Every structure is written in structure tokens, then in C-alpha cells.
Amino acid sequence: KMSFLGLFKHKKSSTTTKAKDKVQEPTTSHSKTDLALSESATTRQTWKSGPITAIVIGCGQRGRCYSEYALIRPNELQIVAAADPRATARSYMSRTFGLANDAVFEHWQPLVEKGRIADAAIICTQDQQHLEPCQACKRLGCHVLLEKPMACSPLDCARLVHREWLSEPDQLMVICHVLRYLPAVRKIHQFIRSGQLGRLCHVQHTEPVGYAHFAHSYVRGNWRNEAGSAFSLLTKCCHDVDLICYWMPSRCSRVSSFGSLVHFRPEEKPEGAAERCVDCSVEKDCPYSAVKAYIFPGVWSPAAFVDREACNGDHAKYQQLVEEAVKTGPYGRCVYNCDNDVCDHQVVNMEFDDGATASLTMMAFTEAVCVRSSVFYGTRGELRWNGASYGDTALTMYEFASMDHMHVPVGLGPEGDNQEAPPAGSGRMRGHGSADFFLAQAFVRALLKAKDSAEAGGDTAGSSLAELQRELNDSTLYGHLVAFAAEESRKRGTVVSIGEYIDSVMSRLDEDC
Ligand SMILES: NC(=O)c1ccc[n+]([C@@H]2O[C@H](COP(=O)([O-])OP(=O)(O)OC[C@H]3O[C@@H](n4cnc5c(N)ncnc54)[C@H](O)[C@@H]3O)[C@@H](O)[C@H]2O)c1
């Protein structure tokens, strides 16, 4: 068994770190340590013939999204059972995937008690409900696709990886850091390592959450307070911390962070505002009005609180349910009177072992909705990403020596990948610039490859699984812990050393045994 501390060995932070002029080899993934892990992997699983089979735990928006891969590629993935306490979610799964009554459950526990009825489990419950079903599925021997964040405390994240998954390197747990699977994101990683930018000195990365999106999810909705989910840097931007760690050629040594909840607070409430938007005299002038947000034509989808599929195409009934929910439900509340406490803006500054730096801005008050943008400042040029998934204009480079502006084309298949564009009409899977599709495809195809190899009596199955497993072992947990460390910096008002932070989490884990 690999030592987790070995994987996470950190140089202590040092302001005297000497920068090297040549581009360093990545240490965040594909390291020798990881390869050793993949070589030791074996396939213990018994595979069922035909497509990869999966159970779905949590059949809300994300669970339905990944399940859709089974509709697009039924020869690759089949959904065989599902669990969700909501009757509408269960009937959607039964209807859509032809599940019999005894394959649909009100809770994940009775489903898991059925034993290993599928190759994989897709776990898309809410943030604080990830750990237990994931542990249970691991013990069954299922491969797991788990929504981010993997857990809501650093100790639970380390517990999940160290106690559960490192002991079985051929059993896959992929965390849904969907953006990692975007062709442009992978191309940036390659480009930095190709040396064309010279030495990377700084990354400036912005996540514009979108004003209506923020009000929906982080003021009125599921991610509004830490008690119910977690801090917004983790729930919204663990993707972005992960991306920065993935791109940078060396490890993060120190973080600092500032941010707060400036706007969605009672003292910001305009004079004359009511408790609910439908009763409000200043609603017309309010950017965050629930009436403007949800009532037809609306600017934000009410899918989180009204199940459109349950209306069977009856648009009038759907509108009526939306109006009723805005009148009486949590999504019709005045944004200045909700039980929210998460930051509406936050910056994170990161320093890396090779002297490079990165800054991340999470911002609620934007027109753009989650269209990330980044600038990569190297000693030979400046690379800009406009947030597009792929195409000829996603990446632009200005090269200092030639004084040329150029596009860096991003195809669907950066080296080593077998990406394919999502088929036209693949509704939900186009989310996150089709990253949802690319992630589901990567997960399912890794399992198919392992299965084919096992059926052919080959011994490469373990390493094909470990290829994805690497993303977890050495970098996904690391990215989560950097996000926790940044939040600790914000709360304590200090610079946090990542090495010391990870050591403290690991010693708490040791004490926990
Ligand atoms: N990867 C991404 O980019 C991304 C984007 C959005 C959300 N998320 C994450 O995905 C997860 C799910 O988000 P969502 O928007 O689909 O939420 P959702 O509320 O629509 O879905 C969660 C579902 O879990 C069900 N559930 C609750 N208790 C259960 C139980 N005991 N057994 C089985 N099911 C149970 C709920 O009824 C609900 O249908 C969250 O952790 C969220 O942070 C990730």
C-alpha cells in the first residue's frame, strides 16, 4: 500500500526558492509515484457482459445529467437502479431508463444493501451526503463517479481517499471536476509544458458566477450557507483551484485569501422591500427579483424547485407550479432576508514551489455565467483563454520574440485523448461547455477498456483504471486541500503554508485511526 504522506510530501514554503529558467516537468500528475501505483494495480472486479452497468444515487440535476450518457451511448452505459427520496425523481428514472419498481429506491442504503448489482455507482447527492454512500459503494467493490466536492471537511476528504480508495488502486473513484476534461484545459496544460510560453510566472484566473446564478444557488438555494453545504470557495471554485493546481508545473507552497459577503445581507435591503418578491413594491428595480428570475420568460431555470419532467410537457401546469413556488417557497424570498452566509466575492493568491504565482477571483456580480477566463504570463509570451471548450479562438498567444499574435487551435483530441464531440441534441450533457459529457465519456470508457482487457485475459486493465485514478490520488485531493487551506487563510487572516496544512490534516487522520 502506498504511503499517502509520501504522495503528499511537500517542500516547506520558502521565499528564497530559486526559479529555474527551463520549464519543469509536471509533478501534480503522471508522477513516478503514480505510475508505481498503476503498475501494481490488478483487476479484481467481476465484470458483467455488455455495457458498463451503473446505479445512480441522487437523481437530481447532476444525477440525471450523467445518466444521460446511457441514452446517448446505450452500448456503453446502462442504468440498472436508482435511489432518490423524491417521487418525481424516481418516476423520471423509471420512465427514462425502463427501471422496474424493485430497481428504484427511496434511499441509497437499501439500494446498496442489494449488493454489487452494477459495475459502477454515480453518486450525485448533495455536498454533505457524499461520504457515506461513497464509502458504502467502495466496500461493495463498485467504481464510483462522485460529485464534487468529495466531502465538506479536509479530514473527510483525506479519510475518503486514504482510508478507502488508496487501498484499492484498481477500483476507480473519479471526482466530477468536469472542467479537467475540457479539450482547452488540457491543451493549456500541454502548452505550458511545451516551453512555448517560456517560464510560467503567473496565472490570473476568474470565475464569474453570474448575478442571477449567485442569487439562485448561493443566496436562496442549496449552497447558501456553510451549515447546509460548505463555504463558496469549495462549493463553487474547487473546480478553479483544481485547474490552477493542474496547470502549474510545481506544487502550491502558500496561499492567502480575502473575501466576504458584502451584499446579500439585511442591512443592504432597499427601503420598502418586502419579505417576498411577489409582495415587493421595489421589485421592478431589483436585479435579484425572483419574479424576474423565474416567472416566464425568466432569466434562470426553476429546475431546482419544479420538476419540469413531471409535468409531461404541460407548459401551463409547469408555469403554474413555478408561480406557486415563487409565491410560497424558498426561491421567492427576498435576497436580503435569507439564511445565507457564504462569500459573494473572494480572491485567492497562491505561491508555487518554483516561484510562480496565481490569483483566483470568484465574483458573484457578473454578466457572464461561469465562463471562466485566464491569462498565463510566461517569459516568452502571454496566453489567454476565453473560456471556450474547444475551437480555433479559445486560446490566443502573443509571442514576445516574433511580436506575433496567434491562435492556438484546440481540437477535440489533444494527444493521448480520444475525445469526441457530444452528439447533437445531447441536452443536459452540454453543460459546462460539454465538459459533463467529456467526463462521463472518460469514466465509462476507462471502465470499458478495463473490462475488455479483463475479458481478453489481459493484464493492462489495472493500469487503464489507474490512469484516471491518478487524477484522484495525487491531485484531486490536493486541490481540495488547497481550497480548505485558502479558506482557513481568509478566516484566520494569515498566510497558510500548504505543506504544514496537509501535514496537520494527515496527523489528525492518523489520530483518527
Ligand atoms: N460538477 C459540477 O460542476 C457540479 C455542478 C453542480 C452541482 N454539483 C454538485 O452535484 C451534487 C448534486 O447537485 P444537484 O444540483 O444535482 O442537486 P439536486 O438537489 O438536484 O440533487 C440531489 C439529489 O439527491 C437526492 N437525495 C437526497 N437524499 C438522498 C438519499 N438519502 N439517497 C438518494 N438520493 C438522495 C435529492 O432528493 C436530490 O434529488 C452536489 O454535491 C453539487 O455541489 C456539481
Describe the structure.
The chain has helices spanning 4-7, 32-39, 61-72, 87-97, 108-112, 131-140, 154-165, 183-194, 211-220, 232-247, 290-294, 315-328, 435-455, 461-492, 498-512; strands spanning 52-57, 77-83, 104-105, 120-123, 143-146, 173-175, 200-208, 252-260, 345-352, 357-363, 373-378, 381-385, 391-399, 404-410, 496-497. Helix content is 36%, strand content 17%. The protein contains 15 helices and 15 strands. It is globular, with a radius of gyration of 23 Å. The two termini are 16 Å apart. The longest helix has 32 residues, at 461-492. A 9-stranded mixed β-sheet has the order 14-13-12-11-7-10-9-8-15. The structure holds nicotinamide-adenine-dinucleotide (NAD).
Model regions low in confidence, pLDDT < 50 over at least 5 residues = 1-43
* Helix and strand pattern: HHEHEHEHEHEHEHEHHEHHEEEEEEHHEH
The hetero molecules present are: nicotinamide-adenine-dinucleotide
CATH architecture of the largest domain: 3-Layer(aba) Sandwich
Number of strands: 15
CATH superfamily of the largest domain: NAD(P)-binding Rossmann-like Domain
- CATH class group of the largest domain: Alpha Beta
Number of domains: 3
Determine the strand fraction and express it as a percent band: 15-25%
N- to C-terminal separation? 16 Å
Q: Please tell me what the overall shape is.
A: globular
The share of residues in helices is 25-40%
How large is the radius of gyration? 23 Å
